[in-house]
Structure formats: structure tokens, C-alpha cells
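Q: My labmate handed me this sequence with no annotations at all. I'd like to see what the chain might look like in three dimensions before we decide whether it's worth expressing. Could you predict it?
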Amino acid sequence: MSSGGGTKAVIAALSANLGIAVTKFIAFALSGSSSMLAEAIHSVVDSGNQVLLLVGGKRAKREATPRHPFGYGRERYIYGFIVSIVLFSVGGLFALYEAYHKWHDPHPIESWAWLPILVLVVSIGLEGFSFRTAIQEANHIRGKASWSQFIRRAKAPELPVVLLEDFGALIGLVFALIGVAMTLVTGDGRWDAAGTAMIGLLLVAIAVILAFETKSLLLGEAATDTDVDAIERAILSGDEAERIIHMRTLHLGPEELLVAAKIAIRHGDSAERIVTGIDAIEQRIRAAVPIARVIYIEPDLYRVPADDPAPAVG
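A: Here is what I predict for the chain of 314 residues:
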């Protein structure tokens, strides 16, 4: 996936969240609503997370060094994982603490009562615009996969992070709107506390999902089934290899793939023919899967295992 779509979605989300955060803080200062404070902190956290994603994307573009010979592509995964930690600790836990405090010391919204409602409605519109941008960018690469499959299988962290953050922001705004509205109607500040608690629980849940997904990327994920099939076809489409003895793939970054394969060559092949054949295989792999930038092909003679007289190719 090109990082351009992810960057566009991140910038759109950052622009929306910065403006929303300021208006929410003003609304909290004037009304004293805990839901507004939780939502303001939520927007600040989201803005900070989007800055982290942009920083990670920039740092990942650095050239490889002798100390890091495979480059810095995984920095995008590291920053994605930091985002989940920030969302959990600063966003979710703060909201839960504020809800606990407000529940034990409830008070109605007495001044500027209409302002939180106005701010929340406007914020829903702005977050909806950001969410729409993220959906449009994701649809360019999602294909026929469901949204849950896309979030689980995406190799670039930016779009899944923005999608989940924007989705969580919209749901959180609805919780805040319900809490504030019920507080205004009933005069009971515990409704405001309940809305704040729901926002906190939502942020914690999203943070946990992001942490699990980015942890998998940090550990190292193989190429998609589609790319693996394309690589296997590229190796076997010529006459250089009789079969694939085994193959391993690993994402060094969202747009950089390592391919290591042991292939069976024919008995009696000369060294020159083997070298020329490996070069041809590498060219076909790069043409079939352009992100396959680091390729290691090991020639060997195939020996039938005693316990497996007819193993499957690959």
C-alpha cells in the first residue's frame, strides 16, 4: 500500500481534531461538563497520535545503515504501538478517572447549558468528515475484504489507526451527547458521569485492539496469501527451478517485503546457468510483487524425505 492514502487520512483527522479540541475545552470551561472534558482530552490524544503517525512515517523513510541493514520501515509499526499505549493511558484511563470523580460528586450543568450540545453536534459533523476521508482512502486498497479483515490484515498501520480512532470518536461523541442531554433534562450530574465512563471504556477497548494488531506487525508478518501465490508462480514460471523446497516471507515495513526461498535445481546445471537462473527468478518476483525488494534465492538439490514420498510444492 502506498503511504500517500494513509498520510492524507492522518492529516484530515489531525486538522479536524485540533479544531474540535479547542472548542471542547472552551465548552468545558464554560459549562463544567465532565463529558466535555473527557471528549476534549480524547481529541487532544487523537491529535497527538496523528502527529506520532506522521513522525513514524517520516522516520521510516530513512536509508538503511550498516547497523540497520534492512532499513527503518518498522518504525511505522513502533509508532502505531505507541499510539495504542497513549490512547489507553491518557485517553481511556483519564476518562474513567473523571467519570469516577463526577459520579461521587455529581452536579448539574448550570451555565452555558446549550453550548456543550452545540459543540458536540458540530464535532460529530467534523469527525464524520474525517471518518469519510479515511473510509475513501481505505476503499482504494481494501478490495473485497470486510472492514474487520482489513484492520486485521493491513500492513500499514496508519489507516487502521485513523479508522478506529475516528469511529471511536463518533461513538464517543454520541455517548457525550446523551450524557449531557440527560443531565440537562434531569438535572442529575450522574448522567454526565455515565457518558464519561462510556467514553473511557470505548477508548480502552480501541486501544487494546490497536495494541494487538500492531504487536503482530512488530513481531513480523508474512506476505499476504495473494502475494505468496504470485511469488510462487513467478519462481516456477520459468525452467530454472524444478520446485520450491521451502519459502519464507517477512514484511520489513508496510511497503517492503523480504523473500527467502530454497529452490530445487536440476542435476548437472552449471554454475553459470544457476546464477543466470536466479537472476531471472528475482526479476520475475519483483515484477509480480513490486514490494519484494529483498530477495534471497538458495539453490539446492531436491531430496525426497523418507517419510514423505510426494510432498506438495512450496
